[in-house]
Protein 1
Amino acid sequence: MQKIDPLKMKDWEIAEAAEERMRPIATIAAELGLSDEEWSPYGKFLGKLETAALLRRPFVKRAKYIDVTAITPTALGEGKTTTTIGLVQGLGKLGKKAMGTVRQPSGGPTFNVKGSAAGGGLAQVVPLTPLSLGLTGDIDAVTNANNLAMVALTARLQHENNYDDARLAQSHLKRIGINPQRIQMRWAMDFCAQALRNIEIGQGGKMDGYHMPSGFYISVASEVMAVLAMASDLADLRRRIGKIIVAYSHAGQPVTTADLEVDGAMTAWLVRAVNPTIMQTIEGQPVLVHAGPFANIAIGQSSVIADRLGVTLTDYLVTESGFAADIGYEKFWNIKCRCSGLKPDAVVIVATVRALKSHGGGPPVQAGRPLDPAYTSENIELLTKGCGNLLAHIEIVRRSGITPVVCLNSFYTDTPVEYAIVRGAAEGAGARFAISDHWLKGGEGAIALAETVMEACDDQSNNFQFLYNLTEPLSSRIETIVREVYGGDGVTYSAEAAAKLVQFESNPEVANLPICMAKTQYSLSHDANLRGRPRGWILPVRDFLLYQGAGLVVPVVGDIKLMPGTASNAAFRRIDVDTATGKVSGLA
């Protein structure tokens, strides 16, 4: 077998070498105690849980439940998935039965700058190629279900505008009176395609559709993906799909997928997608992959289904929340935990010396470009100043009633002095601390982290509490998030957002829904240029979206986009196929 050296090999080369040692997924399923009816194989190394069969078991929470979040990241990411997988492997090295639940990589970042979401070094999910290129089809199903709703909407618009009432009735349709100026839904594509953010459709004659503005968002930011993440079973998913608002009528009434009679067909696309995919770490522990990323513009969590099933199948379940604690953990805390009924036993905040130096005023960190020497040589001043960002995230987690574990994701360029500074800052703020070398050493390098997390799981002083009550006004809850999580001084609303806020707060079906912020991941504030721990700023809400099916009110903040853009030095430039073997190379 090929010797694996993370310092000399790219992540895809490590994954390819590790795949020679993968365990049959049937062996992993058997070790989880799954019967033949409770899982289905997808080849030798992939499988799917059969959610309906597993939900027939009495629910018994067996596992300690651990969430992995992070400080505010740089454009390179700080290794949250890598740490999630490393922690699972570290627990395995200590003889514990552990499992991970992670989100399925989106084609957007996979072919853009950030790359796949498989982890890295010796802490990865394998096999890498299917994970990164569609897996068992869940994101494709979400995309198709979303776009089927748009097909139904645009077809109805065309027919209603071309037919009189008598002819419309002959078509077995009733007139809804859709207002083409109030279309809420968009088309979906799982790539970063900025050219499709704003488009015009229906150009040509009257048989070519209704001419109107439209656009795309990335599939994983669609409400359909949020529904998949939030649903408790297929019946709940079916109910939620039917409540998705696609547009409003001229009378101001919501037009849902049920009104368009497309909700059943949309659910048909998602029947298999409701089942989490079973994979494994490089060291052979089980990993469930379900739902999608992008906690800045979506919920960004592994699914409620995966986590609720996972805590019944193992002793330690490690999940992750997208981006940093102000975004991903806040949504885990106040949305996902409400929906799942699960409370974390421990929370890990991933930090890197690199990111802390950036928050201390270091030069810009840009994906695809060499790091400035400030990040690869000792710089005490930048690091010390940047620890303010770490302290903010510790306070966020402590506000939820949990004492966090700060995991310093070790890079080989870090120094002992730098480690001591971060340890001092973390412990001085009341957090536990561990240095982890899982990227370089796999589970062996994460033993100290695993031991610290196990200790945190047994902390009797933890008292997990939600940030707000759902009975509080939406405006009050938004203010609370801004002041107590982000550290801002207040909120302003555009005229459009203010009007929607009044409308939502007067609607009993909407007023008590959780809040799912859409804002930049690169700052505690709305402005990506405000690094560190910014003070004295106001959060500008420019719009609101209502995800009635998912059960979320989504404030859209600053200039955040629901369709990311592709950079000039995108990852697709380095991905290729060996035509003799069919092996894919270059996945990051």
Protein 2
Amino acid sequence: MQLDLKDLAEQLFPYEFRPSQKKILDNLTTTLDSKTHLVLEAGTGSGKTVCALAPALAYALKYQKKIIYLTRTNSQQRQVIYELREIAKKYDELQPEQIGVEDKPDLYIVGLQGRLKLCPMLNQDPELSGATAEELSKICTDLKRITIQIMKNSGEGGDGSGIYQTKVKYGRKFSRKNGCGYYANVQKYDKNIIQTWAKSNLPTAEELMDYCRSNELCPYEVNKLLLEDAVVVTAPYVYVFQQHIRNRLMEWLNTNPEDLVLIIDEAHNLPDYAREIGSAELSLYTLNQAIKESRKFKNPKLLTKIEVGFFCEHLKEIIMDLVGEYINEDDGFIPPNELETEIMSRLTLTSNKLRLLINDLIIHGEIIQDQKRKRGKLPRSYIHSVGLFLLFWTSLESGEVDGINISSDKYAKLIKNGDNSKIEAYCLDPSVVTHVINQFASSCCMSGTLKPLDEFQASIGLPDKETVAVSYPSPFPVENRAVYYISDVTTKYDVISSDKSVVEKMENYIQNICNGFDKNILVFFPSFGLMQQFLDDGVHQGLKNRFYIEQQTMNQNLLMDLVENFKVQENGTLFSVVGGRISEGLDFPAETLEIIIIAGIPYPKPTAKQRALEHYYDTKFGKGWDYTVNAPTTRKLLQSIGRLIRDENDRGVVLILDKRANRFKEYIEGIRPSIDPIVDIQKFFRG
């Protein structure tokens, strides 16, 4: 008997239903059936991943669709694959007629990673460590072309013999002129063997890399082989939201967005991520490198008879003059046509000649890229980067960029001061990038922190009539967590800059609580700058417990080592920042974390960029402050608080050192003031 979509989703669900899980399942089933969109907020521990996968998979199997599941981190990607393995056990029990097909399709998943992470050849070349995806793609294309030619010349067949048999070994140095043996082995390898292994194991990206290492294969190319037949693909955000990478993914899948279900995990990150990749900047560093590059390549002349180096020197001078004229503290606004006007005035150019000059910069950059490629070097050109930026910058006024209609009011033109001053075309409207979600058959944006839901939905451009937004509370007992705030302190800038006693009070609270409890305590500051101010005052010197601090420049491995060392302590103190890597996506189960101190409300700094955002959202929605100040601050607070309770047995206390915390009582369940936090925390743990 054929199951309807809802029943099929429940059959695939591999666990006993927790509170709210059946409702989440029903919400997504209805969304998929009606080909609409779902904005889902569900507290930590709700099982969002499996609740999204089961109905999405039911829909994909029933209607021959595929699923793209986007994550922000590798650990989240692994979780998707682990949950699919559990679902696969239930899938094996189903009969074809229950799904509504004659033959049950094979169920397997591909975990996509970037080329630099997966490619064994590129990982062995230090020069490529900072390469962009586009640069790596060009290098890879060259290597494959050389490899195919070598294989033809050597007469290699499919018997595994040939020049690569002995030369290819993981971890060995290589010469690009010899091509890529890993790619050659993929060409000779039996695709059916790889697919059979993938379907049997449902591997993570790391497990795929191990398999490929043992067989001397390229994991990146193997992933591409598997994609066309995969039912589920889990990938970083960039695979959908960067247009040229999305186009490539659609080619590999041999499909279109309208035949795909899109699930976006940790979606509270999406608006800022979209603004970032929708923006463009030009720094003094890039211009200096372009000048050096022009000298190295004999300072080519543009069609306007202006030398590249001469032009870049003038552009540097213009940027420095703009810094002096428009900067107010950190940044400032540049009038719409100011940069173009200055260039044309100083170099006596017409607007038409400026367009020719920009196109010529891009052409010269492409020539340099090709020359570097032929010499086996990283195909990077800073002259090309300057040209592309100026093309983007000047195109904004015409309302079209890369074939997409973009009105200039969706961007702010900014000048930023510092050691590396820069101009930036800052994307104010994330829907410039996220509008692609509407092309998919159906979508689900989910996170533990999406409030206010109406702001999130509006920001990313989901249509009102075709979108449902729902929120479910944490499944864990409310009495397991207490949230207090202190009313006699604040990190409001004009207060702490004029009254040093407020900072001293906050430092006393931190020291007394950290020294008063033999527990692991995490102290979040609104920014690295404020944390440094407290460290300069010596707040950590009065701590009895072992002390750890997150450095802004730490790479991921060092940060994970720091976190693991903190977790094994019984009474350690860790200093970190709200909105940083520790405050999002990391688990601190049981006694690894029992008290969180949030030393101030993480309101955004009132920069020109922030003012531009607020003005844009005021104009578009009439809610500038709500959407650009209150909403992101709420999410940052909730993400930080969310580190505390990870399962039904966890217990812990959050203390917010800022009287303004009372403004967030609509979103932070159970928040209340504390006159004596030491006593309140003691009572909580005794109770």
Protein 3
Amino acid sequence: MWRYDIEAKAVDGELGRVRRENETLYAVIKTVSSSLDLDRVLGGIVEIATDATACHACFIYFVEGRRLVLRAASPRYADLVGTLELALDEGLTGWVARTRQPEFIRENALQDPRMKYVPELEEERFQSMVAVPLLSKAGATRGVVVLHTEAPREFDDGVLNFLVHTASLAAGAIENAELYEETRRRVDALTTLTRLSQALAAVTLREDLYEAVTRGARELVGADSCQIWRLDHQADELVLAAADPAETSGAGPRPGRAALLLELLGGERAGTLRREIAADERLLAAPLTAGDERLGLLCCTVVGGRAFSEDEAGLLSAVANQTAVGLKKAELIERLTAENTVKDMFEALAAGSVETAEAKAADARCDLGLPHVFLHVEREPGESAAPPWPELTARIEVRLRRRYRRVLFDARHDELRALVPLAGNDAAAVEELRRACDELAAEHGVEIGLSGAERGGQSARRRMREAADAARIGRSLTAGGGAVSYEQLGAYRYLVNLELDDPPRDRYGQAVEVLIDYDRDKSAQLVETLEGYLAARCSVAASARALYIHPNTVRQRLERIARITGLDLAEEDLLSLELALKVARLHRLRARS
């Protein structure tokens, strides 16, 4: 009977222990399934494990890289969470993480060779210690649960089994919570990206775009700073366009960073660059490309041990693509706005509205008070040779802007007007501009007329007409395209605006018509020679120098002119002959137009 009572009590004790263990496991299950908030789950596990095992302190470490980081602890040590770290090869905690086996020390824990003394944990107060690994479904160590007691204690198999089960449930809860956190982060990131995309779509000014991108991208990837670098194609270098925070905008790139950014631009357009650029700084950069055009880079930096993830690289790449599109849109709007402003300026100058023109010029960042020259570009009417006129004017604009960066253009369906600010001596600057235009005009088969160089807008209307007259008359003076300044027109300046529908039909006019027809049929240059001879005051040597031919060639052509026309140049009214020649050329030019 006595023996029966002892056995019954033993059974009752075992049943009670099992019942308590089950109740504790149910509590653990309830805790891990009650929330997806990782910190709340870890706090609940610490509390349950401490109560169930009658321990004095409980710690939960997570494996992060090659370190064990404290993620949860008993209230007494809660301030150490997130700051206390151990290497994987340190202490019993590291041993359990490496071996993935539970282990306990019954007494004199600090005497164990595997122990590492951590002053912050007051480990001199504890005698016993047990550590259980948190294993993922794949068997990898996710962390370690550590319990301490102040008095020596023998952890039996039941306690160890309970801790192993608890660790298994906790590991699953941690994976679920991390999956939830990752999903929530992705949803938040996509939501932030959507808001940023909407903001970028609404921006029309480049400065506003810079501000929205740098601030939004920095927040999106959790960076400490964000910069936009624009590529200067002429200098082949990167220029800092904007930064957030703003105080970083004045700082140049650290040594080696510019080379890294240029390295990225030289690589795959769709790729991103993740690189450690200093001991405590990491870089994430994505190229800004629109089609085949390289615009620059979008860069984020973070200080500290955190590295950018693949997801963050993808997000920055998406922002960079939208930024490139936004930049092209903003630049297009700016260019169209600038073109309209310049067009309005030319129209105001042509109408004589000086005040309006000066205001439009100021908007276009042009100072009419500085010396400048008007250009007028056109080609032979009815000319259908390639390229089309819009493409041709675009080429001319690009070439002129390379030499005169502040030139303003007004392109029309059949002509191109331009205002070129000058620097230095007016006469020398005009001649330099004329030579550049002559080379350009000959290359593209167009006529370019240049006005005189003056300041202010009062005379602009007259000078625009001068440039147009020079271009129009230049078509009869140059073959295959060229540039003519208004000063080079000579007597043509007095005839160009006269009514020439019915020129005089005297002997000089008839002689000139015969010469023009002869040149057209024989591909001779008698008209040009005669005009040069008369302009040189009948000097054979001077006309030869002006025409770049030998004096004997001039004499031979003059003899042929006399035979064809019957004129004796030594006896004729040379002023009437010169006027008849210029009138005939202008009349034919107008008829052809």
Protein 4
Amino acid sequence: MNSPTPAIVTQSAVRPLPRLALLVFCLAYVLPGFLGREPWKVEDLSAFGVMRELALGLTDWWEPQLLGLPPEEPGLLPYWMGALAMIALPFLDPETASRLPFILLLAFTLACTWYAVYHLARQPAAQPVAFAFGGEASPRDYARAMADAGLLALIASLGLARLSHETTPELTRLAFATLMLLSMARLGRRGSPWTSVVTASLALLALLLSGMGWPAVCLLGGWIVIQLRNGANGDAFGSSIPQADARHRAALLSLGALLLVLVALGLRHDWLAVPPWLSTTPIDAPEATTSAHTWTSYGRMLIWFTWPAWPLALWTLWRWRRQLGSLHLALPLWAVLVGLVDSALAERSDRALLVALPAFAVLAAFALPTLRRSAAALIDWFTLLFFSFCALVIWVIWVAMQTGVPAKPAANVAKLAPGFTPEFSFGLFLLALLATVAWLGLVAWRVGRHPQAIWKSLVLPASGATLCWLLLMTLWLPLLDFGRSYGPMSRRVASLLPADACVLVDGLSQAQIAALQHHGGLDVHRIDSQVAPRCRSLLVDLDQQPTLDERVELTHWAFKATVRRLNDDRRETILLYLRVGG
């Protein structure tokens, strides 16, 4: 038997967000950052380079490479999607074409999150308290309002903005992990379970093809166990699957069998990464010892990356602590735990944590029916002050870049981005202005006296995150392209060489190689390639220069120029050599 629910929600509190407003809001979040910018370093640009090699037929589709080196991020499906888009849309520039599938993936993630919250909120254990004389929220309207809140919580997450707008495997993993969460949420409801089994199986296959090995296996395996326990122990876990319904059990068992088969095949053919704690490779003591500074940095990343979902998720776990075994809490909680463990062990913690953000958003949504009015007001005022201040800073620095006033911000930009020439785009300025006016109107609406809706506390956080992201991708876009792109650097290198020059590289990253090929239009090869004798130019990373004589005969090369990404950036400096007599 279920424990009493802590949610007390009236019918007047479950008014849904207007559908048109929600659609426009999602478009305002999804499109900026994908359109109009150059590929940024490092992961975004290196992934684009691999997609470009596939589209040009320069590498094998089952073993994609860039100049004979495997991608920095494992996976096949993300690179296939980008390359196929380039091939199918030759009338678009390669950058835009490669991003179209990822635009759809981000929109798909938002939609899956909405429907996952909707189905979980329809669970019997998730329903609000029934009033003695009626007036409580109807199950359908309650679920729709909760789904709106979950979507807003995901968009408000600060860590989602940049990583979800890159053409990298992380976005593919995010989208299909969310699809798998939706599949398990639907599976917990009455009706035919086989559609959910099919979508969960496809999501698992897509995750494995996207380089997400053991976390995907742990996610699905844990969710299957949770579903089975809910069905077998209804008194303790919320009987969302009736014991008499053999179809659900058969569906879950078939999904578990498929999972075991894929795990066995993956281990046999060495394409399923083994969890770090199961590795038999000895680890050196200095590397195994994690310093307090590292854990402190990880904690700081965790706080801002999942803000504002994490405090709401903690409140959910406390207020709903007697229902933690129910599907609407157990499914997202397991995803959060897997994501936290994976990110704590991963080299790139923020990228590994990205797939857990929808689960954080689900838990955050279930905090709202139990949130005190004072807590909701605190969220509103903090969000209002924080994002208004951030938007003001973005506008002030943009004005300083355009006019030189105020002088201090203008001087800081000139110091951090030497050589940058500000540009004015009326279209981008108009978009930024409209977004700012919309923010001011939303603030006026939120602080006014309106009927309370369950999702109102997340409107300002989600809108503020969208506003600042849109301002950055409009007002600051030329500056960000200059600072985060290898385009200017590649074009400077190309200006020193003949068109379509054959160039050897030594010590350059995959992102730099991709930029030289795409932005510079250069024919790039490694120094140990078969075509090396005919190439008359050599590009060397500054850090590799002291040992260059071990790989080439320096008497055959003469130093030509030094090219830096920024004028004083010694960390990314390339030395240009020309073959003697060339």
